[in-house]
Amino acid sequence: MLRDAFGRIIDNLRISVTDRCNLRCFYCMPEEGLEWFDKSKILTFEEIERLVRIFASLGVKKIRLTGGEPLVRKDLEKLVERLAKIPGIKDIGMTTNGILLAGYAQKLFDAGMRRINVSLDSFDPKVFFEITKRNQFQEVIKGIEAAEKACFSPIKINIVPIRGINDNEILAFGHFARKTGFEVRFIEFMPIGTGEWTLNDVVPTSEIKEKLSEIAPLVSIEHDTRLPADEFVFADGIGKVGFIASVTEPFCGSCNRVRITADGKFRTCLFSVVETDLLELLRNGTTDKKIAEILAGKVWEKEAGHLINQDAFVKPMRSMSQIGG
Ligand code: SAM
Ligand code: SF4
After folding, report:
1. Structural domain for 207, as ranges
2. Atom of ligand 2 nearest to the CA of 319
């Protein structure tokens, strides 16, 4: 079992499969892109599978594939198929921008993926373009429809409300949750990535909740408190929403997650300033047993929490797309 010095049990692993992306969300990546990782430095599917077997032997049960945009990694369903067969892995999900999802949803479902989060920051194609620098709003909608058709459950929609950009759409997203049955998750804008960030740009969860309660009061629902989102349903029972209040109400005390970047670095926090080079260990003949020992040691040293809004905060060197959100 992976346990840290604060008693937190770690059973949830996020794996970034690529640092590349087909969108340029201004808060995540500059318009010209970033310097991509060298292909030879990207974990192969075999290496990811080997790592997941090691993590599973240490008690990890849940995997989430992310990126960059995970669907720009060719044949992703083949990785899912491999991971789904690993004893102990109970749940494989993915966070995607949805652009390529229409062509992949069924294949991913058939390979064993069941949970999907699609990021969508606006229902207005013009604002979608303003945020992502690409005119591909309709592709995302088609991707969500394909995920529904393939029977993914749950389907969650991630929105990052940003002051003055899309914060006027909070009610529209609330109504969308009610109309579709998808859980809409409001993620607070965090100081990570290549875009400018100030606290004034963050729409606090308290404000989002207040706005949504114009539709109907929100009632907290029972959920796994080790997961980042606080979940609520509208009082009439229709429509589920979640809040990830990383900035205004950090939930680090109950964190159960660790991460692997596409270039094989192990991170115990999204905001870690240190990482462990697993790629090197995988390629230099280190045994699985030794890697497991190293991982257990690093997890023990997991940070108490991020330091956003504190003087000691240090912005990670990597952007969100290079870590895996
Ligand atoms: N490309 C995929 C996507 O956009 O869903 C997966 C990777 S992306 C980095 C994962 C999630 O992180 C997305 O929902 C995105 O909106 C969110 N994200 C990126 N930068 C963020 C930031 N600075 N603050 C809050 N959320 C952010
Ligand atoms: Fe790409 Fe996701 Fe970053 Fe947007 S948030 S640029 S879709 S990695």
Report:
1. 2-323
2. 3
* CA dist 188 → 5, 196, 205, 249 (Å): 27, 14, 7, 10
Number of domains observed in the structure of the chain: 1
Over residues 74-125, the pLDDT tens digits come to: 999 999 999 999 999 999 999 999 999 999 999 999 999 999 999 999 999 9
Q: Determine if the peptide bond prior to 154 is cis (ω within 30°).
A: yes
Residue to mutate, 190, 321, 322, ligand 2, most ligand atoms under 8 Å from C-beta: 321
Q: Which of 157, 320, 322 to probe ligand 1 with, by most ligand atoms within 8 A of CB?
A: 320
Question: Is the whole model's pTM more than 0.85, yes or no?
Answer: yes
For 23-56, give one letter per residue: b (16+ CB within 10 A) or e: bbbbbbbeeeebebbeeeebbebebbbbbbbbbb
Is residue 37 within 8 Å of 66, Cβ to Cβ? no
| CATH code, 160 | 3.20.20.70
- CA 111 to chain CA centroid, Å, is 20
Cα dihedral 150, 13, 258, 157, rounded to 10, equals 10
> Which ligand is closest in space to the CA of residue 67?
1
Would you say the C-alpha torsion 161, 162, 168, 169 has a positive or negative sign? negative
SS3 label, residue 265: strand
Number of the ligand closest to the Cα of 202: 1
Rounded to 10 deg, the angle between the 137-149 and 101-111 helix axes is 30
